[in-house]
Amino acid sequence: LDEALIECRLKRCHGSGSLVGFTLAPYGIYPRGIGRSKIGSIGFLQALAKNAGLELGIYKIRGDNGHHIVESSFKALSRALRNLLDGTNTNEYKSDAFLEQWGPDSVSHRESIALQRSAMVERKTKETRIMVKLEFDGGKGGVSVETGLPTLNELYTAMAKEANVSLTMECNGDLWIDDHHTSEDVSIALGQVLTQAFGTKAGLNRMWCAQAQYGEASVEVVMDLSNRPDLNHNLSISDDEYVVPGEALTVEMFAHALESLVVNARMTAHIVEKAKGKTVLETAMAAFVAFGRALHMCAAVDPRRAGKTASSKGTLSV
């Protein structure tokens, strides 16, 4: 939820369960070093674990707002329970239970394709001329990305293939100046296309986390199609100027491209580096692959929602 990211781990056990991990404090950053004091107790979680026969662990990865920390904990718990009941896990894509629920022959996949979601954005300024077209069609139309920046092409191609979408992205930008306008504007356009294609997001799975490895890098992306744009990451990229030495895409614009994409797609995204890549490109590729995997699952239709919005408020529009 916004800047807060909580991990929940569940495991069935024989007999009474227990709360095996609980590291949420401090609840916020005010007062400094202490956080909020009137935040409730862990009695509910202890009783839930004990009586449901679960080993339950809830761990704060990051978070500055006490309310967000607590609300994120319950979101994580509910999603973990859903996976436990389904017999699935967020990074096990080949199990029988996962394929039955989300695979290419599932009701979810058929209903996702049936929505015929697509969008196109054409954007022309004195700095760039851009066309981006995207379809949630299972990737039947293929992926073609030509931005003038080979590294950015590679990153967005990998993301689109993992997201199982068809994507055409063309850009003619002022690369004789630098990479700024091109990398920013194509990311803005892609985010806008995603927002249009998502529509109201009613009936969608909405939230997922996905992990990817590329070389020595291991990165997890936690995504929520929340309509509350926010990007947080801890990627180890600050010591380098270029994503690939000798090519034009700078590290600062790689980071800004991610931000532009997330903001314009109106999503919340947390990127967590599990293992540092040998190069910035390894880290960047791991992040974009994980981003695509998370996007694929968030955009999938959950038939159990019967077209209703996955929100306790009943809407994502306010």
Mind explaining what this structure looks like?
The structure is a single chain. It contains eight helices and eleven strands. The chain has helices at residues 43-52, 66-86, 96-102, 107-114, 150-163, 180-198, 251-264, 280-299; strands at residues 5-12, 18-23, 54-62, 118-124, 128-135, 143-146, 166-173, 207-214, 217-224, 230-233, 268-275. The strands form three sheets. It has a four-stranded mixed β-sheet, with helices on one face. Strands 8-9-11-10 form a four-stranded mixed β-sheet. A three-stranded mixed β-sheet has the order 1-3-2. The longest helix is centred in the N-terminal third of the chain and has 21 residues, at 66-86. The radius of gyration is 20 Å and the shape is globular.
User: What structural class do you assign from the helix and strand content?
Assistant: alpha/beta
Described by the principal axes of the CA atoms, the overall outline is: globular
Q: Which whole number gives the mean pLDDT?
A: 95
Total number of beta strands: 11
Task: Report helical residue fraction.
Answer: 25-40%
The total count of helices amounts to: 8
The neighbouring-strand order within the major sheet is 4-5-7-6
How large, in whole angstroms, is the Cα Rg?
Answer: 20 Å
Q: Which stretches of 5+ consecutive residues score pLDDT under 50? A: none
Please give the largest β-sheet.
4 strands, mixed
What share of residues are in beta strands? 15-25%
Helix-strand string: EEHEHHHEEEHEHEEEHEH
Please report the distance between the alpha carbons of the first and last residues. 15 Å
